[in-house]
Amino acid sequence: MSRFSGALQLTDLDDFITPSQECIKPVEIEKKVTSSGAKIKIQEDGYFQVEEDGSTQKLQKVEITLADCLACSGCITSAESVLVTQQSQEELLRVFEENQKIKSNGGYQEAKLIVVSLSIQPVLSLAIRYNLSPNDCAAKLATYFKQIGVDMVVDMTIADDFALLEAQREFIRRYRATESDGIKNVLPMLASSCPGWVCYAEKTHGSYILPYISTTRSPQQIMGSLIKQWVGHRLGDRPIYHITLMPCYDKKLEASRQDFFNDETQSRDVDCVITAIELEQMLEQEGISLASLENSTFSQPWLASEASDVFPELKRHIGSGSGGYADHIFKYAMSELFGENCSDLEYKCLRNADFREVFFEKDGKIMLRFAVANGFRNIQNLVQKLKRGKSQYHYVEVMACPSGCLNGGAQVRPKTDATIKELTKELEDVYNSLPCQTPEDSKVVKELYDVWLGGLESDKCIALLHTQYHAVEKNTNALNIKW
Amino acid sequence: MGSLNLLQTLKKDNGRVWNLSWHPNGEVLASCGEEKSIRIWAKDLTGKWLNKIVLTDGHKRTVRQVVWSACGNYLASASFDATTCIWDKKGGDFECNATLEGHENEVKSLAWSKSGQLLATCSRDKSVWIWEVTDEEEYDCAAVLNAHSQDVKKVVFHPTKDLLASASYDNTIKLFRDDPSEGDWICCGTLTGHNSTVWSISFDKTGSRLASCGDDQTIKIWKEYPPGNQEGIPTEDGDSAWKCVCTLTGHHARTIYDISWCHMTGLIATACGDDAVRIFKEDDDGDPNSPGFSLICTVDRAHTQDVNCVTWNPVIPGLLASCSDDGEIKLWSFKELGQ
């Protein structure tokens, strides 16, 4: 079974056809041109071209990178096998080992600073798996990572805050552009933090849908900017290897996007994504009992003060376990646009529990209509509504996984006697038991807007906290047409 | 034994004819094929079948299957252009009043549930989709099922329940149902046994048995064993178990593309790549747990090329329609000898 979300399974991102079978990407193969046409001999250790004089030359293996696959509308298929080699726990351990070697040879300055950012959903998934409290689980994961060669373990909540604040402001810009300037194609704003959804929209619906997708980067990629740009700069431009722990496999695709490759540092904002399932495997392979590890601290390398290591105090945001985008933006819009405050939002379930909506009515007119649409079937219905011009929404929080990110495709699977639904409920309960974080109240975020980004809505905010999307042209290669 | 007598040959299309569907009243036949159009055939006053209507502007590529809803008011068509069209006569003439998009590539088959509330489609993209008809007569996607690992060739609903069967290039047949506790459709059974692509499936009248055929040139009969069955066949999660109780081999020389189980006579007809149409009859007094079926009629050169589809008329016993790569549709009357 593929580990990608349903949306990507459909767009052929996972169909395991190896590049040699169907890849249409032109690849340059280094070999000599012969006059009589090439003879190729297949041996166990590779393919050899036989020269006219009888000597042989080993042919290079064709390598397709994930970036090649993402930019191509052909098969795209090998993406998963490519991912396995480029973003696997093996790759991670290889990097750790290499770094350790450099360090033990005295090259401390050349060694990379290895940073791991933990997102909330996989920490909770592992906490339930190993029967730990969320904070203990995070603190023990910090210890585990430091044992295997990581220099700093950090909490990604700060990036969630940035993403929410940016999305709130972006929504107001779009709403006003529609209301006062009559600009079309900017509402509904659609959430952008789910790479399964974004990739599906790019490959399948292109220019119909892309203008609606929020340009705000996902928390993972904002974390990438923060760590590589700001923290890297603060620490004297030391090379950083940045790992994120995420709830879904699709995040690996997001990290590999060309948009998040930095030419200056010649590296990606996020170098490697590992998921809850993979971390569980790593722990099991090494025979490590997470519960038996000591608690350790999270770093806050973006702060000016030195002694900023603290024990983890995990937070949630209001709203869904996928980041709470709909709730934050709804409340912000009510106060910003209509000067109204509201307490908890009451959603109404539509066709199923994964499609629910909420609205704000004023003088008999619906001023704000928001929805949360999780899972591929609801994405379908939303997209078709949009295409037919029948959507009445101002904002939709779209996530490719049913139940959203707490049930991400790479979260630890339920034990044999539990269903996914029961496990998701448990994850939601644990998530809702955490103390609440309000992005507007974060002093650190405020300070970073000043010292790092040069103020709200600055060019730097656009450059580092926003991104763009690219429609992938449908390929009509005759070879791809089958019965 | 029996004989299949040709009643009439219908030919209009230049390309291959892929599929046929009888209207539930038995008086109208729809056909589709490479010409991208759908033809509707009915009898004139003299009893000859004529092409009455051609529906042209629904699809951009080959139309692979057409199927009438149980109420007879809707005709759905599946095309290699990745879309599904729903045609109705609300405005007087047949018009395409809904186009369902979502499949990534060729839609191979489709089926209405008995109630008409659900439509299932399947595609080369390996997925099976369930569409729900809303009160406003729109079609909402109720489920996208990624259970198959290859191209899905055929979907068929159970004759009375909302149970869907699908047949695939991955050699399996899968069963799906709505699971209210999950709020989604689930795969509730995988029938393995065919050694190659399963091309078509057909339920018997009661829906307690399913016939399948495919690239391995065999027919298999699958029987439902509900929870608590007398035979003691184990079941899981309250779902019935389906066991292969009969395999018919040695009758077909090529791939069997289609199978139709008549709900009136109980006869099974097959469409084969060897250009023949065959009729099978269940043996009398057989053990329900290992029934026998006998070949009682073969028309060797029923068509001049692959036979793509066979279908029994739902009202007139023994009336069979077939169509082929040769561009022809043939209507046959089956008579059992000695009756």
From TrEMBL, chain A:
InterPro entries on file:
Cytosolic_Fe-S_CAF, Fe_hydrogenase, Fe_hydrogenase_lsu_C, Fe_hydrogenase_ssu
Domain Iron hydrogenase small subunit stretches? 417-473
- The protein, known as: Iron hydrogenase small subunit domain-containing protein
Reading the lineage from the top rank, the first entry is Eukaryota
Task: Give one GO term, molecular function aspect.
Answer: 4 iron, 4 sulfur cluster binding
Q: What is the documented function of this protein?
A: Component of the cytosolic iron-sulfur (Fe/S) protein assembly machinery. Required for maturation of extramitochondrial Fe/S proteins.
Q: Name one Pfam family in it.
A: Fe_hyd_lg_C
Keywords linked to the UniProt accession: 4Fe-4S, Iron, Iron-sulfur, Metal-binding
Which PANTHER family has this protein been placed in?
NITRATE, FORMATE, IRON DEHYDROGENASE
Carries keyword Iron-sulfur? yes
Q: Is the keyword Transcription regulation assigned to this protein?
A: no
Which family does the UniProt entry place this protein in? Belongs to the NARF family.
From TrEMBL, chain B:
- Pfam families of this UniProt entry? WD40 (PF00400)
Q: Where do the WD repeat units fall?
A: 10-41, 56-88, 100-141, 145-176, 191-223, 300-339
Keyword Iron-sulfur included in the entry's annotation: no
Q: Which residue spans traverse the membrane?
A: none
Keywords attached to this Swiss-Prot or TrEMBL record, sorted alphabetically, are: Repeat, WD repeat
What domain of life does the UniProt record list for this protein's source?
Answer: Eukaryota
As recorded in UniProt, coiled-coil segments are none
Q: Signal sequence span per UniProt?
A: none
What processes in GO biological process is this protein linked to?
Answer: iron-sulfur cluster assembly
Q: Which InterPro entries match?
A: CIAO1/Cia1 (IPR028608), WD40/YVTN_repeat-like_dom_sf (IPR015943), WD40_PAC1 (IPR020472), WD40_repeat_CS (IPR019775), WD40_repeat_dom_sf (IPR036322), WD40_rpt (IPR001680)
The cellular component terms of Gene Ontology attached to this UniProt record, alphabetical and capped at eight, are: cytosolic [4Fe-4S] assembly targeting complex
Q: What is known about what this protein does?
A: Essential component of the cytosolic iron-sulfur (Fe/S) protein assembly machinery. Required for the maturation of extramitochondrial Fe/S proteins.
Family the entry assigns: Belongs to the WD repeat CIA1 family.
The name this protein carries in UniProt is Probable cytosolic iron-sulfur protein assembly protein Ciao1
Look up and give the organism this protein is from.
Phaedon cochleariae (Mustard beetle)
Gene behind the chain? Ciao1
